[in-house]
């Protein structure tokens, strides 16, 4: 089945901050506590995620989610199709569809797709699975 591992890839996000909060961050950067705004924001996010680690783990177990990188490969989908089985993909992290997977194969073998994080798939696959993506 698909290989799981932690991904070194990152996703860009945009946040809006008020001028006072932004000024506080800039002051901490100026005073040398952080190298730049991004360093502060990453540290704050990691700290909050660490604080909520137990709740996150319980949710992962409750929802039966895979954590990290989930590669969807053509050979795996073909084997599922040949056995008459379907796949329910539930990922926290990155779900990545191999470029040689066509929309028909995806539609035949993917019953549901939940990705909390990022989905890398061709526009054709995303369109084919649009009614199954939650």
Provide a descriptive summary of the structure in words.
The protein has 134 residues and is of the alpha/beta class. The chain folds into 2 domains: 19-51; 57-132, no CATH class. 46% of the residues lie in helices and 23% in strands. The protein contains 6 helices and 4 strands. It has helices spanning 19-30, 37-51, 53-63, 74-83, 103-109, 123-128, and strands at 4-5, 66-72, 87-97, 110-120. Strands 1-2-3-4 form a 4-stranded mixed β-sheet, covered by helices on one side. α4 (74-83) packs across α5. It is elongated and about 60 Å long.
Chain-wise SSE layout:
Elements: E1 4-5, H1 19-30, H2 37-51, H3 53-63, E2 66-72, H4 74-83, E3 87-97, H5 103-109, E4 110-120, H6 123-128
Parallel strand pairs: 2-3, 3-4
Antiparallel strand pairs: 1-2
GO biological process, one term: regulation of DNA-templated transcription
Pfam families: RHH_8 (PF17723)
Protein name: CopG family transcriptional regulator
Number of domains: 2
Low-confidence stretches: 1-7
Tell me the Rg in angstroms.
19 Å
**Quick one: overall form?**
elongated
> What is the spatial order of strands in the main beta sheet?
1-2-3-4
Structural class by sheet pairing and helices: alpha/beta
What is the mean pLDDT?
90
Main sheet: strands, sense, barrel: 4 strands, mixed
The percentage helix is: 40-55%
The proportion of residues in beta strands is 15-25%
Count of alpha/pi helices: 6
- Measure the end-to-end span: 22 Å
Output the helix-strand order.
Answer: EHHHEHEHEH
């Amino acid at each position: 089945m698909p290989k799981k591992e932690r991904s070194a890839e990152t996703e860009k996000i945009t946040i809006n901050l008020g001028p006072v909060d932004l000024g506080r961050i800039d002051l901490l950067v100026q005073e040398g506590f952080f190298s730049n705004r991004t360093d502060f924001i990453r540290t704050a996010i990691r700290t909050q995620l660490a604080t909520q680690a137990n709740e996150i783990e319980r949710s992962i177990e409750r929802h039966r989610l895979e954590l990290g990188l989930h590669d969807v490969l053509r050979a795996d989908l073909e084997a599922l199709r040949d056995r008459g089985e379907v796949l329910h993909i539930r990922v926290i992290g990155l779900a990545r569809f191999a470029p040689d997977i066509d929309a028909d194969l995806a539609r035949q073998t993917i019953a549901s797709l939940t990705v909390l994080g990022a989905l890398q798939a061709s526009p054709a696959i995303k369109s084919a699975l649009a009614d199954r993506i939650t």
